[in-house]
């Protein structure tokens, strides 16, 4: 938890300096570098450029922006902490792209990678602390949202809504053997239950939402705060709870 607090403070400090630097850079040069015309700047807010079909593959690539997120993420665990870990916080790696850039509506697919420990208890796979772990999962959250952007003079607001698909691949954790004790007799049996649970009853389905406020530093670099919420669709429908909900707050970079 101390490590998380230190990382969170660092992110907040970096965000403060970025926003401070942005607020002090208003000049005529910025207007000349804007991707929008002067008439668009005067008539703010605007909804971006008109989409033009790319005639070549090279032009299609130029219509894309590369996206990176650095956002600590809370994974909600509704089970008792006497059995499992408190809702864990992890630091994922998120990359993706936005197409077409500078338009009101765009496709913004992203993939998020993280790992987590799990144990098996009473027909559920629950987040686990390192001392009680059975399985380590390598998780890939593939998020395919549609984004809506409203452009101001030197920044833009973005709201995204889409579907997420969580692919979790589990294996026995380091220093855990197949014959170690488990809830159903052995760690190997528990691990098999956990891996099956990942794919049952639509637990891999999520509804994703995102709100971002991105500042334009150059014609290429945009950055700003972002908030993401992932609702566990399968868990809500089949289990009747929000176990597995994920929420992240951090910085988004668009290049």
How are the elements arranged and paired?
Elements: H1 2-23, H2 28-33, H3 38-42, H4 57-62, E1 65-70, E2 73-75, E3 89-90, E4 93-98, E5 105-107, E6 110-121, E7 124-127, E8 135-151, E9 155-172, H5 187-198, E10 205-216, E11 222-232, H6 233-238, E12 246-254
Antiparallel strand pairs: 1-4, 1-12, 2-3, 2-12, 4-6, 5-8, 6-7, 6-8, 8-9, 9-10, 10-11, 11-12
Number of strands: 12
Write the CATH fold name. Porin
Strand percentage lies at 35-45%
CATH top level class name: Mainly Beta
* Element-by-element helix/strand order: HHHHEEEEEEEEEHEEHE
Give a quick account of the main beta sheet: strands, pairing sense, barrel closure.
Answer: 8 strands, antiparallel, barrel
By helix and strand content, what is the structural category?
A: alpha+beta
Mean pLDDT: 85
Question: What is the spatial order of strands in the main beta sheet?
Answer: 1-4-6-8-9-10-11-12
Number of helices: 6
Low-confidence stretches: 21-44
Q: What gap, in angstroms, lies between the N and C termini?
A: 32 Å
